[in-house]
Amino acid sequence: MAENTDPAKRPHVVIVGAGFGGLFAARGLRRADVDITIIDRQNYHLFQPLLYQVATAGLAPSDIAWPIRGILSRQKNVTVLLDEVADVNVESNEVLLSDRRLSFDYLVLATGARHAYFGHQDWEPFAPGLKSIDDATEIRRRVLMTFERAEMTDDTAERERLLNFVIVGAGPTGVELAGAIAELARRTLAADFRRIDSRSARVILVEAGSKVLPALSAELSDYAETALQKLGVEVLLGNAVTQCDSNGVMVANKPIPAATVLWAAGVAASPAGSWLDAETDRAGRVKVTDDLSAANHSNIFVIGDTAAVKDAKGSAVPGIAPAAKQQGRYVASVIRARAEGKKQPAAFRYRHSGNLATIGRKSAVIELPFMRFSGLFAWWVWGLAHIYFLIGVRSPFTVASNWLWQYITYGRGARLITGDKTNSPS
Amino acid sequence: MAENTDPAKRPHVVIVGAGFGGLFAARGLRRADVDITIIDRQNYHLFQPLLYQVATAGLAPSDIAWPIRGILSRQKNVTVLLDEVADVNVESNEVLLSDRRLSFDYLVLATGARHAYFGHQDWEPFAPGLKSIDDATEIRRRVLMTFERAEMTDDTAERERLLNFVIVGAGPTGVELAGAIAELARRTLAADFRRIDSRSARVILVEAGSKVLPALSAELSDYAETALQKLGVEVLLGNAVTQCDSNGVMVANKPIPAATVLWAAGVAASPAGSWLDAETDRAGRVKVTDDLSAANHSNIFVIGDTAAVKDAKGSAVPGIAPAAKQQGRYVASVIRARAEGKKQPAAFRYRHSGNLATIGRKSAVIELPFMRFSGLFAWWVWGLAHIYFLIGVRSPFTVASNWLWQYITYGRGARLITGDKTNSPS
Q1: How far apart are CA A277 and CA A332, in angstroms?
Q2: pTM as predicted
Q3: Contact A66 B413 (CB under 8 A)
Q4: A172 and A272, same structural domain?
């Protein structure tokens, strides 16, 4: 079935999604005797760990996103398609695109995740999440527009509502957004307005759990919480948001009026599970076998944020870039071995390389398997590590000089309000 | 009337538009004893001479646009308003904004120009022009999407239509767009597609007049035409577009099927003339007196692309950045002199500093009052001059390194398709 029966035809590998998982799967097959088609809804690969910087006007979209075609242009066995997958036919081994079908010998589903509102999908217009470039420029537009509106209004209550920023969820994205918005208000914009004092803006981080950065040790979580508070962020732990609308949010039965609410509280996997009619976990992730293929479909692999994978200790592999990369590389090796009639590699094993998060521009927390550290030194390690990861995809000079310039001047050059200024709900 | 009658109150100067003219007027008043309000519909000042680079994916929007508040944050006598002017009441000396009025002692209208379709406004959806960041990202989206669609289609005629790019108007913007799109197709994208050869794209520059870059000498025009042809641009001179719709354009009674038509053929001034009920020229520019004030309204000045100004020889001052800057500086000196009760400076005199345009990344034409030159050396002069002009507004390192990186790699890192991919007419 999966194996190629016509010897004249090279096996066709279809990869859906050009995030870290899909891209590393494609690269892992660069010397394999297969034809690859990689499909994505966007024409760019996104360096998601820095997306919050675009949302807070620190970096430009093109600093952290690169055309998929450009990344893969030299890999001649890859065809890139800008298209959307509607379904998968597991009987005929076909992927259904917007207006055609594509048959495959091997399929890799690396379709990522979207934000989840835990049954409150109607909150989305009031509390956008951060997954794509368009999400980020929309959040940037909203954040900057609220300061503009606050400068213009004569209504004190409305001004207060405009200068309240609520971030829901204290994982890395929520922490990084809160820190960056606090710095935007306290430093970057401090001299820009005449009628309001942007430093009076409140940045409120709401978390249902009992600590910030729950994946980290108690010590680093505490450090991060203190660092956030030093930046002026109010941290509300153990409180879920119970209502969200155009006025703001309800937390612990108290209303917090806020024109800007950002959602960083949860993710749900893409619909890959329903395409395969496969068993999923609560977050919609497909439960996979130990070679990352779907149950009963040994030629269909599911990786990255779309898959529920366990590590050697039985804990869930986290939804972070290094995990997706390892899985992409692994399925490439499995497919290559099968296509070449060789012995399949042993079961996938996740190697955890660490967790990290930044708090503003002076502090970060880094937890590696063998050590943990925090503070300014950690921030520089974080910065250098990210510049290192960016090398090869875009000009490292550009990103490095953007950051250095920002660091020296406290400026945020990318604070452009683009798109339609009128269609905001607030 | 214009002069301040209440000695306790500083004169209020309202500047509409934060382009080169408005910004230089504001800066020219930094030491004047006045209160300034500068109003713009956008929150950013745009370096328009490089806008074509954003439209062709060479630079990111934030490389050439900077928040107005950031530029003026240290000038304490300036308040920035993000708002739109609906009208001017010349009797009561008030500017009408979206939901309020603002009274002024002096008014500077520096509202620029939009593209003009010479009575064919219905062509706009099919042939967008290039004036704002949103225009540029929309053109970038369209240009990149046509290559994606060409890669997907099996219809030969449709593929040809998708790979035809028509640019209407051979002034600097048209020439620069044509050169940049030709290089995008011939070099940057050459290895990116598997089913189409992007190098087979046709780039057609249509001009109703008899030469490209009509403001330049015959020698430089001829040079530019040859340089365009070497890049693969087809130059059609002496031919106006007589029809434009979703299929393409009609030129000399022949249809040219084209999914992408870009309009660089003409500009019309903003509605400032109708606000003042003033006499305008054919392009809608307000005819001004020799201190750049409107006839019968000595406290209202009109500058930049909105004004019809003559130079010492009686020719029209061109609609270019240096002219707007000189006019902005001049009206600042007039207002300052009047506010301080000093003698008003002599009539405005335009000093022409030159014309220039680039053709792709290897060639430029520069015409200065005392010399003219062209070719690779001119390109470098152009590049260094622009980096010099950008210094002080954004990180010169960033722009310089972006360009250097592009120059070395032939890459165009900013080729992101953002925004709604479905709402294109083609």
Answers
A1: 24
A2: 0.87
A3: yes
A4: no
